[in-house]
Amino acid sequence: MAIRWPLLVRRTHKWLALVVAVQALLWTLTGFYMVVVHIDTIHGDHLVRAPMVQPFDLAGLAPPSRIVAAAPGASEVRLQRFFDRPVWRAETPEGARLFDARSGAPLPALTESQVREQARRIYTGDGKIVSVRLLTEAPQEMQSRKPPYWQVEFEGWNRPTLYLSPTTGELISRRHALWRVFDFAWMLHIMDYDERTDVNNPLLRVATWSVFAMAISGAWLLIWSFKRRKRKQA
Fold first, then answer.
1. Which residue ranges traverse the bilayer (predicted)?
2. Rounded CA gap, 56 and 78, in Å?
3. What domains can be seen in the chain, in order of their start residue?
4. Are 21 and 170 in contact (CB under 8 A)?
5. Is pLDDT of 39 > 90?
6. Distance of alpha carbon 144 from its chain centroid, rounded?
C-alpha cells in the first residue's frame, strides 16, 4: 500500500500544532506573569527590614585567636550582632557557629522563643505568627537550601514565610504567595516538573523540535498545495 504523503504530513502537522499551541499558550501566560510582577516583589524584599549597621565597642572583647582555637578548621571569624549583643561568628566546615564576643563561650542553638523574636524583628508586616517549625527536611519551596532551618509563617492572604538559621538566627530566605505562583509559572515555562531548575531538560528540547517539525511540515504543505493548484489549472 502506497503512503499518501500529503495526508500523513497534514495529520502530523495538525497534531503537532495542537500540542505546540497548548505549550505556546502556557509560555505566553507564564511569561506575562513573570514580566508583569516586579522581580523585587517576587523576591519578597518588601517583607523584611534592611539590617541596621551599628558601631561596636571593641573594649573587653575576646581576641579572635581564642575563637579560632575553639573552632578548629574555621576559615573566617568576624564580629557581628546577635539580639543587640556582639558575637564572634566562625565559619567552620560544619557551618557557622556563634561565640560570645566578651567571654568567648559558644552560644547554643536558638530556642523557639528566640526564633519568634528574631522573626518579628525582621518582618515588616503587622500579622501574627501562625506557626513556627524546625524543619529537617526541605519543603518544595526550599529545595535549593539544605536544612535544618526554622520556618516561621505569618498570617495574611499571601502567607508570608521566613526561614531562619537555627545557629545564627540570620534570614536564609523568604517566601510568599506571589513567589509560589512565580515558581509554579517557572516550572510550566521551562517544562521541568521535578526540580524546576533545568532549562535544558528533555521535555523542553522535545517541544523545541516539535515547533521545528511543525514549521517544516507546514512549509512542505504550502509548497505542495501551490504545485497541486498549478497541475489542476494545467
1. 15-36, 206-226
2. 12
3. 56-107 (3.10.450)
4. no
5. yes
6. 7
